[in-house]
Amino acid sequence: MLIQEDLASYRGRLEIRELLGAGEPLNPEIIEQVKTAWGSPARRIRQTETTALVGNSPGQVLKPGSMGRALPGYRLVLLDAGGKEADEGEICLVLDPRPLGLMVGYMDSVEKTAEAMHGGYYRTGDVASRDADGYITYVGRADDVFKASDYRISPFELESALLEHPAVAEAAVVPSPDPLRLAVPRHS
To answer: Angle formed by the axes of helices 155-163 and 28-38, to 10°?
Structure first.
């Protein structure tokens, strides 16, 4: 809906200094439209269970598509499927020492808390990649990313690419079983 909205018409009616996005990541098209309309890029943050753990601090160079870097107070690592630190994998927080901004646990769910906090890490469930400068780029939810012909595919990345076409207002991508390639992306 943000892509279709005339955001520039709000200029003058709102005093906007900084914009933050939380929850699901913003598609590059939305980030660009906000920047064009209001002159300020959205600084992205993630996670409900923590305070801001990844973001673009004021004065930091913004890299298109990146969520930013680990923010002060958090030791962030990416763990691959084997539990080893890597440049692509699940975003995890080191629990020794425990970050002050991290929740104590999930209400009424000891099992869910134990699942998220094992092996010395808080596991966010988000998959990302990190570049040489430490910038984190969101790939998708660990339970959304799927394999096709041995490639890890993020529905979010495909949806973002589809949204670049002017005839596409919304997009949803899901895996569809394939006997040869394990899965293939389907969209609507």
So the answer is: 50
Domain annotation for the chain: domains and CATH numbers: 7-143 (2.30.38.10), 144-188 (3.30.300.30)
For 32, the enclosing helix (H) or strand (E) is helix 28-38
d(CA 2, CA 21) in angstroms, rounded, equals: 12
Provide the 3-class DSSP secondary structure of residue 31: helix
Q: From CA 29, how far away is CA 92, in angstroms rounded?
A: 28
- Cα separation of 172 and 153, whole Å? 13
Tell which residue, 58, 54, 73, has the closest CA to residue 135: 54
Q: Could you tell me how far CA 4 lies from the centroid of its own chain?
A: 22
Alpha-helical segments (H) within 39-102: none
| Run of H or E residues at 55 | strand 54-55
CA-CA distance, 20 to 34, in Å (whole number)?
11
**Tens digit of pLDDT per residue, the chain (188 long)?**
666 788 888 877 777 776 776 666 676 777 777 778 887 766 665 567 888 888 888 788 888 778 889 988 899 999 998 999 999 999 999 999 999 889 999 998 999 999 999 999 999 988 899 999 999 988 877 767 777 887 777 777 788 788 888 888 888 888 888 888 888 887 65
Amino acid sitting at position 162 = L
